[in-house]
């Protein structure tokens, strides 16, 4: 944009927009990382170009003039459009345009979907698709190229795959049939001790999930070494929940997954004494494209913000 008398300085517009939202010169200066005198200078310059006052400033308050309100209504969408065009151009230059396929197990929870929405807002030139992957095959879709990356339950120790951000560390929950003796603890807020798993048949994922991963999802022994009875082996989360409701065993789930699958025939009881669950973003080694890296940043920032 031109900087001459008849042109427009983008810095002046940014200053005006910050002032119109903050209605405070000090806060606007902090937001723009400049001094208050620089904010005043930019505003005076813009008002000089227009030939009239855009803001009224007194010792007590700052407010838009009627002309300032009209100018704001006109310039705000134009400024947003300009930033959108710049973001789209940057994405194209960095290889962010195109299709990104993200896999997830069971159900993508609210936080994951917030990350998806944030990514789509930032990168409108990239089409993001979410793909459900089987509970019993957490890494197959990534390895086979069906998805570019996947959000999976950890651990992950596959030499041909890379692990990105780790997030959503949560305590485990034991899902049991509403008729199970442990179900009463859900109503009272009591917990299940890890050693009590020795009295439960634990439902877990079957093959082709690697053995080390299956052993975490359905441990063969308690931390104290007591054997844990083996429950049915299932391919999907829904199969596991159906088997749980039918009283064929109990199932260990992370807390967000339990919260998303509340039903009357299953009770969810917190477990004490087992390591927390965690999610991670994985992709093929050498497959960390600009799109995958950008999605990883969106997920990491969302969870870091609390």
- What is the overall pLDDT average? 88
CATH level-four homologous superfamily name of the largest domain: Periplasmic binding protein-like II
Supply the CATH class of the largest domain: Alpha Beta
Helix content: 40-55%
Characterise the protein shown here.
This protein has 306 residues and is of the alpha/beta class. The chain folds into 3 domains: 10-93, Winged helix-like DNA-binding domain superfamily/Winged helix DNA-binding domain (Arc Repressor Mutant, subunit A, Orthogonal Bundle), CATH 1.10.10; 97-168 and 279-304, D-Maltodextrin-Binding Protein, domain 2 (3-Layer(aba) Sandwich); 172-275, D-Maltodextrin-Binding Protein, domain 2, CATH 3.40.190.10. The chain contains 11 helices and 13 strands. The chain has helices spanning 10-22, 25-32, 36-50, 66-94, 110-122, 140-143, 184-188, 211-217, 237-245, 255-260, 290-304, and strands at residues 55-57, 62-64, 98-105, 126-133, 149-153, 161-170, 172-177, 192-193, 202-205, 230-234, 250-254, 266-272, 277-284. The strands form 3 sheets. The chain has a 6-stranded mixed β-sheet, with helices on both faces. The longest helix is centred in the first third of the chain and has 29 residues, at 66-94.
